[in-house]
């Protein structure tokens, strides 16, 4: 769920039509029409013709209700609103801005959007991708005491060195709608020996079902590679590639041909099977089964070939609410045994951090740190030990986790909090007039609904139905609370009662309900309600965005309140 601050900032510039009508986002057309008729009885100017002041306020409120109905009852407009919000309904997107911003602010906003469009267009055309890797050998930290003469190392610091650096970059150059050129290059240095390569690839979209490309590369030898992809039928596709590599060997060049082919088929909604054949210096046949759902990703594979024959299984668990993945794998083959475990965490919209520990024979212990930033990848493989050393495993596992939380708590969180507060304050100042307007509209709506609320209350009292005794909305917990931190919304909540039942759909911005407004932008808000049903007192507390359904026997006052804060909020 989005943070309170993010939601509040969105509502400053937009409106929640569903909340205006008290509807869920999957409401049917009949529900939309019924809600409009019900609110028309409250807010239509003709209903208040005898009172000039109320008639004037109704002329302000009713057009909002009618606009919400017009948009939600039109399938095309509703689809646009659901996808892009209020701004998507405007012809050019500037009508809303012009009503809330000065000419200078409009110009600045236009220039900013123009720069963003140009940048996005450039990235879409070039699609730059890059990888930067630094290999670190820190094995001396854990292997040094295995030396025969350990005393020789007793007074010296461990020797940590960078033994590998590699950089690769590629960009795409669209030539036509079907033809694209790709330019790529890489540089690498390992143990003092450097090498590099540059390649040019031409890709053509042959049809809707396939593409083909030819790559020419030069550097550490020259190579020609041909690749192709084709959808075989609705549930299957295949790839094929062949290459000729000319590798210098003394005064002559050695020709190394290679061929690879893969066929994949969707066996089930969540299961895919693949068979891959490789021929060349390292020939092999691989069979793979992939199981993928929203929460799990499992891969099992068997490879038979020269020089390596192996079996592999991996499992990844996805924590969608936390934007995190935990993964583990095991590989057993003629090369040895390797077990891996690690995690991956999305830290921002475009950035992901990951850490993996590899333990095995003959690799020892390796910690791999990885960061993805858009299309750029940064990797730091750290070789901790040549053998399986418990100390290396312990520090390789817990030190990255401890470092992540320390940096997050001490540096990142304070920085992001400060940035959000500045952004919120800037938004408040830029939209002060609009916020005041929302407050006045809410106050007008309350005055207009009084007669209807009185009739609803009388009807509910006669039959012992749902009667709202007291309701508060806003910041109800915390120190130094003032009356400006929350609203008394008893009338507003009673107006939502229909036939002894009250329903506020999940995900509703309560500050957009009729007669509500946001008393504390950027703060976590709650709704506390004290009500009677069948002459018995009930107490409940809901967070902003929760589904509210009354009555509920769990709210009976004889039972403990749903939250200790409920009684605190109601006592104020």
UniProtKB/TrEMBL annotation:
Listed Pfam families: DnaJ, DnaJ-like_C11_C, DNAJC11_beta-barrel
InterPro entries in the record, alphabetically?
DnaJ-like_C11_C (IPR024586), DnaJ_domain (IPR001623), DnaJ_domain_CS (IPR018253), DNAJC11-like_beta-barrel (IPR055225), J_dom_sf (IPR036869), Mito_inner_membrane_organizer (IPR052243)
Annotated stretches, region: Disordered: 553-572
Q: Which residues form the J domain?
A: 16-85
What keywords is this UniProt entry annotated with?
Chaperone, Membrane
* Top-rank taxon, per record: Eukaryota
Which Gene Ontology terms of cellular component type are present?
A: membrane; mitochondrion
Localization per record = Membrane
Q: Which GO terms describe its biological process?
A: cristae formation
| UniProt main location, coarse | membrane
Name by which UniProt lists this protein: J domain-containing protein
* UniProt source species: Paralvinella palmiformis
């Amino acid at each position: 769920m989005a943070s309170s601050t993010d939601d509040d900032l969105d509502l400053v510039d937009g409106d929640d039509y569903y909340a205006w009508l008290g509807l869920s986002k999957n409401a049917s057309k009949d529900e939309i029409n019924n809600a409009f008729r019900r609110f028309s009885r409250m807010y239509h100017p003709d209903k208040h013709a005898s009172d000039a002041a109320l008639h004037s306020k109704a002329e302000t409120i009713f057009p909002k209700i009618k606009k919400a109905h017009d948009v939600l009852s039109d399938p095309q407009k509703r689809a646009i609103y659901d996808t892009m919000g209020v701004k998507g309904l405007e012809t050019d997107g500037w009508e809303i801005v012009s009503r809330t911003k000065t000419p200078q602010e409009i110009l600045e906003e236009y220039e900013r959007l123009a720069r963003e469009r140009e940048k996005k267009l450039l990235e879409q055309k070039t699609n730059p991708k890059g990888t930067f890797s630094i290999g670190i050998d820190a094995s001396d930290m854990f292997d040094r005491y295995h030396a025969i003469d350990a005393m020789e190392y007793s007074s010296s610091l461990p020797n940590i060195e960078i033994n590998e650096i590699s950089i690769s970059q590629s960009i795409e150059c669209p030539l036509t709608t079907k033809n694209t050129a790709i330019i790529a290059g890489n540089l690498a240095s390992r143990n003092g020996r450097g090498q590099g390569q540059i390649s040019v690839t031409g890709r053509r979209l042959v049809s809707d079902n396939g593409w083909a490309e030819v790559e020419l590369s030069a550097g550490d030898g020259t190579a020609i590679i041909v690749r192709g992809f084709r959808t075989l039928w609705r549930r299957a596709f295949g790839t094929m590639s062949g290459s000729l590599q000319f590798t210098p060997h003394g005064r002559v060049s050695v020709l190394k041909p290679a061929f690879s082919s893969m066929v994949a088929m969707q066996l089930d909604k969540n299961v895919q099977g693949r068979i891959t054949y490789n021929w060349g210096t390292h020939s092999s046949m691989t069979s793979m089964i992939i199981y993928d759902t929203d929460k799990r990703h499992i891969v099992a594979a068997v490879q038979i070939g020269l020089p390596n024959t192996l079996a592999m299984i991996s499992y990844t668990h996805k924590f969608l609410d936390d934007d995190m993945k935990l993964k583990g794998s095991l590989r057993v083959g003629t090369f040895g045994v390797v077990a891996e475990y690690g995690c991956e965490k999305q830290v921002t919209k475009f950035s992901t951090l990951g850490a993996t520990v590899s333990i095995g024979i003959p690799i020892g212990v390796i910690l791999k740190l990885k960061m993805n930033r858009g299309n750029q990848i940064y990797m730091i493989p750290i070789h901790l030990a040549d053998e399986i050393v418990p100390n290396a495993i312990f520090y390789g596992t817990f030190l990255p986790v401890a470092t992540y939380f320390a940096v997050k708590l001490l540096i990142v969180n304070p920085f992001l909090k400060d940035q959000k507060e500045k952004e919120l304050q800037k938004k408040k100042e830029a939209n002060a007039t609009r916020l005041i307007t929302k407050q006045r509209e809410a106050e007008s709506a309350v005055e207009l609904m009084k007669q209807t609320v009185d009739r609803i209350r009388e009807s509910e009292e006669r039959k012992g139905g749902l009667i709202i005794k007291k309701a508060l909305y806003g910041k109800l917990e915390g120190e130094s609370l003032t009356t400006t931190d929350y609203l008394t919304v008893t009338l507003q909540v009673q107006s939502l009662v229909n036939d002894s039942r009250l329903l506020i759909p999940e995900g509703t911005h309560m500050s957009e309900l009729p007669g509500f407004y946001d008393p504390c932008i950027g703060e976590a808000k709650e709704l506390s309600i004290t009500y009677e049903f069948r002459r018995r007192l009930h107490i409940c507390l809901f967070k902003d965005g929760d589904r509210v359904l009354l009555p509920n026997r769990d709210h009976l006052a004889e039972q403990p309140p749903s939250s200790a804060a409920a009684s605190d909020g109601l006592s104020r």
